[in-house]
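Bug #77: duplicate submission created two jobs. Keeping one. Sequence:
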Amino acid sequence: MSTYTVDARRPAPTVHPALPGLGGTSPSGDTIAFTNASMTLNGKPWLAVAGEIHYARLPRTRWRDSLLALKGGGVDIASTYVFWIHHEEQRGRFDWDGDRDLRRFVEMCAETGLYAIVRVGPFCHGEVRNGGMPDWLYGSPFPLRSNDERYLALVRRLYREIGRQLRGLFFADGGPIIGIQLENELMHAGAPWETTPRLCTEWVTSGTGGAEHLRVLRSIARESGLDAPIHTSTAWGGAPVLEGEVLPLYGGYAFCPWNVTESTPVHSPTREYTFRDYRGAGRRDSLFDPPYDPASMPFACCEMGGGMQSWYRYRFVVPAPSVEAMALVKLAGGCSLLGYYMYHGGSNPAGKSVFLNEHVVPRISYDFQAPLGEFGQQRDSYRRLRRLHRFFHDFADELAPMGTVLPEGAEEIDPRDVDTLRFAVRAKGRSGFLFLNNYQDHVETRDQDVLSVAIALPDEKLRFPRSVGFTLARDTCAIMPFNLDMAGARLATSTAQPIARLDVDDSMHCFFFAHAAIPAEYCIAAETCARIDAPGSATEKHDGVLVVHPPADVRSAFTLDSAAGKRVVVHTLTEKESLGFSVLHLWGRDRAVMADADVIADRSSLTLRFREEQSTRVTLTVFPDVPGAMAANGRPLRPSASGGFASYTVDIPARHVPLDVVQTGSGDAEVHIEGEAFADVRDVLLRIEYEGDVGNALIDGRLVADDFCNGTPWYIALDRFRPELDEKGICLHISPRRSGTAVIRESGMALQQAFTGAELARILSITALPEREVRFHEVPAGP
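Kept job's structure:
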């Protein structure tokens, strides 16, 4: 058995106030400030989660549900770009209507309990045409992204327009906007000018002026009313940092299509999955090389890859474990703001005369393989992040002041090395968390069998697990606590991963989950436990430690009374149960919820959403139960109770959606759907399986959806295209994937391009999936 050791006897870094130029107070007295370890909210450490969502890439009618899904996934802050070209495509004509209504979107953030960070550019990128710069800026007689007064005059005009839209919505006004991002990737990245011919593409400059340019932008932003407790800027890749006045933000991507070219056709594994100390004096690279002492301010992220947009040259599939593992590695390294790009995918809006995408990505789809898909689908990555975010929030007081401790050689591990265990510790004094990772992008990992980890602390040495070893399965990451206080009982070690803590009546309920290949083991200091009741669990006592091996089942809890006189109930979920688990504020209090469908919660109601044709049984499990009776879609329900949990089951009859499909060629089809198909459903999704190069969907000759084929099904939500869809149907055209040679032939006054070789464009199947939902709500007791 392999035993790995880390020495965690060094003191945790000192926590002290930082970034005095940032922070603020709301009219109700709420305060935002900073220490060198984290943001603080009302004086307490605030480990926040930010999720990127672009209002102009989503139908306004779906904003509320999308924001509620962010909130339900553990996101605290909705982050959004304001793409200049989306609002001033034609010079001097600003458009803030419909899906471009920034003000209404931010108001809705407040209504759904989210803060907001508004990324005002002027340059944004985001795979938008010209990086978000309007076409009419091309060929300007002055340098863009510079301190040239002619350029700054346009910036002032843009910022004033944004300021008018957002007046009264800032934190100081009692509104949700806590942050303004200035520029994006200044002096690091530009974007192709889509106005130029493809063979001679020019680029939007990466900018000049350094920190002084950020200082000027911050001044203009404040003059324009864009003043928030936090001004931020991206800091990777050599971008300048305005120290003391702007919070530098970082990120990381495992799938980098910009690195895949004709000369470099194979993507190399990244360093995103090897542990490092982001607040120490360890390894630096082009993506993290701060000009300041990294221990002097918090390490915060705005662009951890929640997925990635497929590029034409690189058609990858982002595995859900990659998203979870990146977040865990950043957290282990000291991250105090987990920020994802993208968290919610979308669709590019129609321009007045051009497509608004960058040419390397689909014209319409910006799904990004994000945790929340283009049409709001809650993916496996969403569920994995949801449980991690709950841990991040519930254990913030413990995590925030903890330093990162790495075993010897951790920062030098080659990403291709799948044999050496990757692990790290965050600790303060005797307490902390062990982080493990067995995922690596672009490399096939393997199970790491029969291992244990020992942690040297100031007055003891702990081992995970206590006796036999465990297997860390391939593509798995894990968190294990040590010397964790549970209302006065000390959990010395646990191989189960903590998710949440919930106070109910006089008891603290602690929720953990057991990884599939790691049996749950809890080692509790006997002197801190007055009584333990663990029916169905194997329990033993060794050297003053109570060892409990419970079955993994949320209802099979064990209970202990701490020496401090508090009742503690420990629930161990299976991995499958943990993916359906969340803690939501519902019916007047925080409740643990488990469901086997997409969950949308709105304080007084909870909706389960699913996409199936077959008859379906959906189950909602709630703890603690609601005081009154429950109903689903207006019909009363009777709960089944087990282990203090109340479960409500609803049977949904089959709902077939007929399609009229006329195949006009192997890669072409015309699809009609009757208007009645949308009765009693929220939406209808086309599911298209095909082979080829690019999928195109058109209504009356207008492109409405597209897809770069990567071997996975292509989905299109149809409700947004009614009533035009009812009248005209939708045409599907697959452009062929070619293997062969293009030949240019002279033909009189012109040239002809011919192709010799194989072409593949084939539609394999087209089906319709009704999106249905069950709304659960409390029926108040009668008088």
